[in-house]
């Protein structure tokens, strides 16, 4: 009987340790895919997680883990739609989504790509929307939720600074057309519905040109 | 707490429906019909001058300083601020937004007698109160640059308005009285559903890089028991018109009253006018069903815990 107990203990220990060995490795999925048909994330989001500005693929490096996880879940369950990302997220197990989100959240923020120049009028429009909003139309400043210089706040308000202009513009248009609907409290759908195309172009280009981290002199 | 207080409230409301605005408006405000869709009317609202029209001279510099104080109070009026709030947290759009206690709604109404301190107050003295109560700090002395700049800003913003007439959109939206007495548990449910995303489950808001992005709603870093926002009518009106940010007028009136009650049923720094006891201070300054100061909620008398935040 005692022998049986020891054998049982050993078996349990082995099972437990093999289970932990099976915990998905975020780095491996990002670099090589998950071995079950999901392509490596870095194919689109770049080896350093910085994204691809020209294609509108967003930076993932340094984004909040909970935000990344929620987006993967939302792609998987269809509440956020994207022809590329839905099969990817749907092909990842829950544990794999956890691992990928954890991996990217811990990656250092890579230096941003040089941004294209905007007209002075566009810059001024964007600065106003970013820092003051358009309250007579019920539009809060972007900073009021996404933080000073758009560096992001907490788990629900992702950074805007340094994201590709094409990505930001695509998302704002998607909110506006209700093609993207996974925003908490419909905050972004409401805001985007009050913006016009010129606003979206200006604010997307402006945030793309902002540094992803606060400069020393901007910190209190 | 529930019933006695709110039976009283209903009775008092019926008798003194106009008692609560401060300063007392010269004209009685027309009351909206008591429906849940009480979105404030937008007609004939005063439009403050565009910011781009600030004069480009020495006077303009003071106006601009006033605006900066509004948006980043802890930086530009540091000596007088005792919490993590800014003016703009309660006066949205740097004090320009209707139904968010805009400066153009307040400036033309002073001097005014205020029950708050039983005296006629100048506008500068009214501003001192903001620092003592809402900012839980110290009153800047009269003539201090901070007060001069804020007054210059409010004056500039009010250009062209009649004096002594409360303009539509002044103060906070006046909600019809709630159909059900505001309730902590219902308010908590509203808070979790619609507020905690930004203000956090513990009501302490969110900071990033040392800046307050979402303000703390109670506790040591929020407004004290002397602030206007501790009154349920002010809080409910502000919340209804402005929260969640960018989605004002989407909560029902009942939700706004309930969540205002929930917020104001939390402990916060002591009223600087405190004298002898919470009960005595309530009698002197909070003798209204709209204040929970000195009222027992969930077994604790609010105001008694101010020293242990």
UniProtKB/TrEMBL annotation, chain A:
Any Pfam family from its record, for instance, is Cytochrom_C
Q: Which residues form a coiled coil?
A: none
Q: Which UniProt keywords apply?
A: Heme, Iron, Metal-binding, Signal
Q: Which residues does the UniProt record annotate as the domain Cytochrome c? A: 21-108, 128-211
Leader sequence range is 1-21
Q: Which InterPro entries match?
A: Cyt_c-like_dom, Cyt_c-like_dom_sf, Cytochrome_c4-like, Cytochrome_c_Oxidase_Subunit
Which protein are we looking at? Answer: Cytochrome c
Natural source organism: Dyella flagellata
Automatic annotation (TrEMBL), chain B:
Q: Where is the signal peptide?
A: none
Q: Does the keyword Metal-binding apply?
A: yes
Q: Which domain of life is it from?
A: Bacteria
Q: Name one Pfam family in it.
A: SoxA-TsdA_cyt-c
Q: Which UniProt keywords apply?
A: Heme, Iron, Metal-binding
- Where does the Cytochrome c domain lie? 182-267
What is this protein called in UniProt?
Cytochrome c
Q: Which organism is it from?
A: Dyella flagellata
């Amino acid at each position: 009987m005692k022998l049986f107990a020891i054998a049982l203990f050993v078996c349990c220990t082995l099972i437990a340790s093999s289970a932990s060995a099976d915990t998905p490795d975020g780095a491996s999925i990002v670099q090589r895919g998950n071995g079950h048909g999901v392509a490596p994330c870095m194919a689109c989001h770049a080896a350093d997680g910085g994204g691809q500005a020209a294609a509108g693929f967003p930076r993932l490096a340094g984004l909040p883990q909970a935000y990344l996880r929620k987006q993967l879940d939302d792609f998987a369950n269809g509440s956020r739609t994207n022809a590329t990302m839905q099969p990817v997220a749907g092909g990842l197990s829950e544990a794999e989504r956890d691992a990928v989100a954890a991996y990217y959240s811990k990656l250092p923020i890579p230096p941003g790509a040089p941004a294209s120049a905007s007209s002075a009028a566009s810059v001024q429009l964007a600065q106003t929307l970013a820092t003051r909003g358009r309250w007579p139309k019920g539009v809060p400043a972007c900073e009021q939720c996404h933080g000073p210089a758009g560096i992001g706040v907490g788990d629900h308000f992702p950074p805007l600074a340094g994201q590709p202009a094409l990505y930001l513009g695509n998302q704002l248009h998607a909110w506006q057309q209700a093609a993207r609907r996974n925003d908490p409290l419909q905050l972004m759908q409401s805001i985007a519905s009050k913006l016009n195309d010129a606003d979206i172009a200006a604010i997307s280009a402006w945030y793309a040109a902002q540094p992803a981290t606060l400069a020393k002199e901007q910190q209190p | 707490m529930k019933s006695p207080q709110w039976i009283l409230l209903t009775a008092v409301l019926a008798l003194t429906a106009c008692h609560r605005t401060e300063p007392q408006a010269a004209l009685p405000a027309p009351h909206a019909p008591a429906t849940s869709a009480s979105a404030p009317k937008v007609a004939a609202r005063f439009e403050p001058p565009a910011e781009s029209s600030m004069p480009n001279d020495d006077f303009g510099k003071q106006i601009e300083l006033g605006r900066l104080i509004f948006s980043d109070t802890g930086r530009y009026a540091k000596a007088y601020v005792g919490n993590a709030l800014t003016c703009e947290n309660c006066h949205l759009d740097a004090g320009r937004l209707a139904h968010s206690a805009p400066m153009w709604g307040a400036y033309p109404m002073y001097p005014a007698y205020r029950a708050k301190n039983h005296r006629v107050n100048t506008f500068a003295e009214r501003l001192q109160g903001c620092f003592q109560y809402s900012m839980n700090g110290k009153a800047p002395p009269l003539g201090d640059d901070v007060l001069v700049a804020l007054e210059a800003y409010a004056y500039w913003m009010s250009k062209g308005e009649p004096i002594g007439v409360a303009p539509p959109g002044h103060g906070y939206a006046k909600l019809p009285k709630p159909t059900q007495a505001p309730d902590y548990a219902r308010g908590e449910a509203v808070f979790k559903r619609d507020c905690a995303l930004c203000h956090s489950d513990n009501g302490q808001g969110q900071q990033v890089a040392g800046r307050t992005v979402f303000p703390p709603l109670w506790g040591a870093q929020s407004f004290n028991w002397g602030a206007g926002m501790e009154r349920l009518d002010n809080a409910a009106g502000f919340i209804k018109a402005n929260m969640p940010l960018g989605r004002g007028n989407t909560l029902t009136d009942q939700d706004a009253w309930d969540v205002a009650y929930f917020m104001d049923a939390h402990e916060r720094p002591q009223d600087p006018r405190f004298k002898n006891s919470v009960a005595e201070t309530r009698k002197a300054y909070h003798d209204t069903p709209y204040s929970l100061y000195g009222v027992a909620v969930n077994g604790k008398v609010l105001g008694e815990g101010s020293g242990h935040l």
